[in-house]
Amino acid sequence: MTDLLEIPKVSKEQAQPDLSDPKYYVNRELSLLEFQRRVLQEAQDETNPILERIKFLAIVGSNLDEFFMVRVAGLEKQIEAGVIDVPPDGMTPSHQLAEIRKLSLQLMSQMRECWRDELKPQLHKAGIHILDYAELSRQQKASMDRYFEEAVFPVLTPLAFDPAHPFPHISNLSLNLAVVIRDENGLELFARIKVPATLPRLVPIKRSSGAVRRDGTIPYHHYFVWLEQVIAANMDKLFPGMEIVEAHPFRVTRDADIVIQELEASDLLESMEQSVRQRRFGEVVRVTVNDAMPTHIRELLIENMEMDRRDMYNLDGPLGISAVMSLHSIDRYDLKDPPLKQVTHTRLRSELQDANLFAAIRREDFLLHHPYHSFMPVVNFLQQAARDPDVLAIKQTLYRVGRNSPVVNALLEARENGKQVAVLVELKARFDEESNIGWARKLESEGVHVIYGILGLKTHSKIALVVRKEGDTIRRYIHLATGNYNAITAQIYEDIGMFTCDEEIGADATDLFNYLTGYSAKTDYRKLLVAPINLRSKLVELIEREIAHQQRGEQGHLIFKMNSIVDPPIIRLLYQASQAGVKIDLIVRGICCLRPEIPGVSENIRVMSVVGRFLEHSRIYYFRNGGNEQIYLGSADLMPRNINGRVEVLFPIQDISFIRQLRDDMLATYLVANVKVRRMRPDGSYEMVHPADGDQPINPQEWLINWHQRTYVD
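User: That's the sequence. What structure does it adopt?
Assistant: Structure tokens below.
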């Protein structure tokens, strides 16, 4: 990957290596870029359908936007403030930025090569043509010129830059044209045109929804042209009487990380609204341009946007490659993954139809595995609670719910029906703030008790509590999950949820909501692990218990599945467990700051990463515990921000059949998979895992689709 990530060498004679030594840690930011490389590999993978490859390419573009807006911006602010926060790997902020610039440019260049050399030709072969304006026929140009006059021209606002006109503000993630014009006196002038984000970036020249015929021919073709090229071709209409000398696209990325001074904010909701509005005015952290842009225009942009010239990236091809995501919506199912047939848990079907979900949960706990299982039982759970006259109250945390949310609609219905409804809406869910602010306003206007979280902590836990009167008693029904209450992402994110009416978990849930909505000095819970209260201490206790089992001669085994592992104390403890002989399997989708397979330090640790059709999002913590196995599921990754700075919940799986299912039918499948799986090397890079000669290919997500179909479809 880079010589900064050399494989540490530890001699077997070295008795006690210093586990805090920076050589045993991978830099967080470089690990995140390495994850983007794995996503890009899916765009480069010829076994994926072409429109799925387009989707992955767009995801990398969007991910890099966020990476610069948040992570790179944070490093630049550290340097500007003179605060040198050196991470466990020992890289200073300046050192990190230098490596980030090098690796980011490499990634962005590879993305354009993938688009130009692989994806665009394959799209053309499939009947989807992305054309440059110069390639259009006379008839197509006439059509685009009419489109410009009718739809584009009215929304454009050319902004001049001269002594009478200050340099215009260039908003975050905006695509622009830097235009040089010459007046009748031969004087060259500069103007900026913002490409409107309200119009399709890829303008359809000819729309159709035809499918491939049985004989393999294509009855209809789709044609698109880039919007900025349509604007550039019609520039004379914007500057009548002027000579257009040149026009070059550029795209700006700004610091978009929101820092809330909660101690000074009398109203967190208003503070968040103000911060979201200000996001587009942050410092410039990246500008992408094409190679054709001349030096004098580059210098003008650098000077007037007060940016570091090292943050200007020269790229070949379209800027803002995430715009190609719109192609995925083309009605060509032969160019996409087969539709997923979600299943409903066998023993829930009749209860859902009869609105008797509470009776089913009283009989047994239910484990739902999304997206293989439908999310509708979760929606039905809340809808039935809203309509059931015996339900007294509903309490829920909301982190990312999306737009047109059936979950929020159920909560609003519950309030209309006279239920007590309390909802914690996390306003600081990054890049979902506007949506959450809107829902918070709506819920409040309908009389729902809305809480915005605990001072200094982001509430990331996923829990819904329904309080129901049953005869002379009160029973609590709980849904706990690893993922968000979002009916849309539940179709593409891999997550696990559980219904239960366990009395102790119900009591813990009540205590948790009291902690969130009021004042509580509670330092322990019966069964739940709650950050920042007892989650760290309990995880440490469980890992140390596994070490003790190993030292007594029993085979210690830990299997952790998560999005990221960054936390230095937990990494050191896992190193100690490996040194003690505990077998450790880590299934980490994204960031991994731990270095596996170093002799004498982590030789018993294996790290795998799965990147496939669905976003691996569940967090699973398995402890062999001398044969008395334990599993916790929940919302927390092993990162300082999760363990120290968020309200997180891990919940125990108590049904032995669920433990076996999670161990044998899920975790074991990931660990033996040899398709869509990468294995982490000690240097922080990853290698693809391939089937050995004679081995059956195992794609873990495809295997789980088939397993759920066999298990839950009659």
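Residues 93-125 form the longest helix (33 residues).
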